[in-house]
Amino acid sequence: MLKVRPYLSFCLLPFAFCLVAAAAAQEWKPSRNIDIIVSSGPGGAADREARIVQRFLQELPGMPPVAVTNRQGGGGTVAWTYVSQRAGDAHFITTFSVALLTNQIVGTARIGYRDLTPLAILMREYIAVWTRAESPIASARDLVARLKENPSGVSFGLSPALGNQNHIVLGMIAKAAGIDPKLLKIVVYSSGGQGMTAALGGHVDVWAGTLGGALGHAQKGGVRVLGVSADERQPGPAAELPTFREQGVDAVYSAFRGFLGPDGLTPAQRAFWDQSFAKIVQNAEWKKVEEKHAWGSGFLDSAGTRKHLDAEYELLRKMLADLGVTK
Fold first, then answer.
1. 256 FRET partner, CA 20 to 30 A, in 12, 53, 89, 308?
2. pLDDT at 34
3. CA–CA distance from 128 to each of 122, 206, 224, 326 (Å)?
4. How confident is the model at residue 2 (pLDDT cuts 50, 70, 90)?
5. In the chain, what percentage of residues exceed pLDDT 90?
């Protein structure tokens, strides 16, 4: 039988103690309130995402109070700049979407995902293009036909900036009509809530926004969804809504939504948010929320999110160049 000499056992004790101490030192927990900074105004998709996540975070054991603050402007740049100025402070997180990448690509903002710490992608979203129920535009085919006749004869609303996922889908529709996307008449609103109100009031002919934002209005009969940018019809309430693809219009695209932190977060801080977001998406109630808002599952942790953004940036750079919206 192998015997461990007493002095060897004694030498191992400090080593074991160091391992325990190192593990303890690597843990991080918030020491004060968490602030979720929303990259658009109240009522839009980013605001909805933040307030739902706020509720789930608040239910996690040991989580301090979680606040939501809207800092709209600059297509999200105001919020992302605010958070970037708090380097190393994991008590601040912010919503983000494709606009973080496209703003930089089209040259409307200098700040990019490399200036912050990607924390998680929680879901993917499809784009719904709709009109008021009384609009003479009855389908995606009808919209394409009208654009062929007069490229600037239809006004489109979107938020919060040109070049984002909503604009990408409109550009795809323009290409399907055989026209230059730059000829589209587009009105940009600072938030989805503000823009949808304008669209419902007839200030623009067509709205391009999240599928989740369109569902409630479509179910009540107030809007007519011309098409959804999914490759096939989505489950739940969205199953009644047609895709562009089934109408012969090549406009298939899904965006992503998630959270960022300031630059300079430690591995321990990133691990805290990895664990927190993982617990949210594993919650059975989260699955119900996904179906209610027509969110597609697509969770990525901080490392996976960074890799995804690296690849997506290159893809979008080429896509936006093809659509003619880059400088």
1. 89
2. 98
3. 20, 10, 10, 24
4. very low
5. 72
Q: Taking the C-alpha atoms of 285, 288, 293 and 295 in order, what is their torsion angle to the nearest 10 degrees?
A: 90
* Stated pTM of the model: 0.75
Q: Is the dihedral of CA 228, 298, 41, 293 positive or negative?
A: positive
List the beta bridge partners of residue 127.
210
Give the C-alpha separation, 126 to 290, whole Å.
Answer: 12
Please tell me the distance from the alpha carbon of residue 45 to that of residue 66, in angstroms, as a whole number: 19
Helix extents (H) in the chain:
6-26, 45-58, 77-84, 99-106, 140-149, 165-176, 192-200, 211-220, 267-282, 284-292, 302-323
Given a cut of 70, is residue 8 above it in pLDDT?
A: no
Q: Which residues contact 9 (CB under 8 A, 6 or more apart)?
A: none
d(CA 161, CA 73): 9
Specify the residue for token string 């919503």: 95
Residues, the chain: 327
DSSP code of 243?
B
Amino acid at 270: R
> For residue 278, which phi and psi values (nearest 5 degrees)?
-65, -40
User: Which tokens in the block code for residue 186?
Assistant: 């587009």
Q: Is residue 184 a contact partner of residue 129, using CB atoms and an 8 Å limit?
A: no
Helix (H, G, I), strand (E, B) or coil at 41: coil
Angle between helical axes of 165-176 and 99-106 (0-180°, round to 10): 70
Domains of the chain: 34-125+255-323 (3.40.190.150), 126-254 (3.40.190.10)
State yes or no: pLDDT of 18 exceeds 50.
no
Both tokens of residue 11? 């030498």
